[in-house]
């Protein structure tokens, strides 16, 4: 009997998929990376399904690749040969939502936007909102420590994660963290699992922090600039002025052209960058007017301020179109370097220079308020591997980010794509310690091997 037959017998054929065509659809994420050939896919609907899978994997020494919706951009859920893909997308229960404690307990397959919608029925909100929030899952957000448009004010996913239910590699169940806003008992295992990309355990539930939703719709502005550097300088000035925006997004000319080609937004020939900002403070309109003035003082050629929630959503909608617009133009190597805000203009200049030097089309958007840039290297559709000039440009961008005191990834994670640069940032001592931590939780190396570290 094949090892996978024992898993089918334990979970049923409805839970274990072995059809090659169906398996292939679960073996990929949103990158260009080609997966291997997994043995099958487990469609888990409960924690017990995950426990059974991990016990079987340990017994038969089969690698396990956990996944959510497959919206990742670093290759963290790309399956390898001989693995079993463990899909958590069907675990969609919001087990608890407590307005009094401002927390929710959710399973990993809950769509991010659905949790936020449920919270708003009680005057609350779930703050993290990655650009893929309408299709990405809480489990995937936790695995990569996803950020989002509002992270400039509310932080990344780790800042909203209070506790986790985790199935370990051998099938044991671990509960980390707490339901309280404060707690320092023992090591921070919750923080360790968030961002670990499924390499330490499989998250089957999370206790997350909710926040009071703004009493009024946020005020929003969009400013056009004749250069990316001017836009970056405006961001630095806004943050230095203490405006505390709830959103601060930057789009370069290449991104705007891609959106205009798709949706005809009436892009002006002189516009080289657009800055979209928002304030959800009680005096949000006054804050936005102050940010408008700062943009004008830093060279903005035009600034539009929303007069209604519909107009505000239209402006934010431009930002959410960015990645889809670029995917229409070619295959994408999507990166997410993060630098100190004070050197944001220098990083923007370095990205432009790398593109020109290597003849590579780079379209950049940024969560500019916290220095997190997404340079997207676009190359021909159907190309299995980015051409050498793309890798050369990316190498230059990463090294420059590190030289400016930054990091290789602000929110997408390392996955498979960034492992080639990992040693440049972490160094040998950090690498040795991280491999040691991995060995404690996963001594057989079965959980998402080859990812993250």
Structural class: alpha+beta
Describe the biggest sheet?
A: 7 strands, antiparallel
The N- and C-terminal alpha carbons lie at a distance of: 35 Å
Separate helix tally: 15
Task: Count every beta strand, where a strand is a DSSP E run of 2 or more residues.
Answer: 18
What is the 3D form? globular
Identify low-pLDDT runs.
none
Gyration radius from CA atoms, angstroms:
22 Å
Strand percentage lies at 15-25%
Cofactor: FAD
Keywords: FAD, Flavoprotein, Oxidoreductase
Organism: Nonomuraea insulae
InterPro entries: FAD-bd_oxidored_4_C, FAD-bd_PCMH, FAD-bd_PCMH-like_sf, FAD-bd_PCMH_sub2, FAD-linked_Oxase-like_C, FAD-linked_OxidoTrans_Type4, Oxid_FAD_bind_N, Vanillyl_alc_oxidase_C-sub2
Describe this structure in words.
Its cofactor is FAD. Residues 34-213 form the FAD-binding PCMH-type domain. With 453 residues, the chain is α+β, with helices and mostly antiparallel strands. The protein is built from 15 helices and 18 strands. The protein has helices spanning 3-11, 20-26, 47-60, 112-120, 138-144, 151-154, 189-193, 228-240, 253-263, 284-297, 309-320, 322-327, 344-358, 388-403, 422-441; strands spanning 16-17, 40-43, 64-67, 84-87, 94-98, 103-106, 124-125, 161-167, 173-177, 202-209, 211-212, 219-225, 247-252, 273-279, 300-305, 331-334, 361-367, 372-379. A hairpin with a 5-residue loop joins strand 8 (161-167) and strand 9.
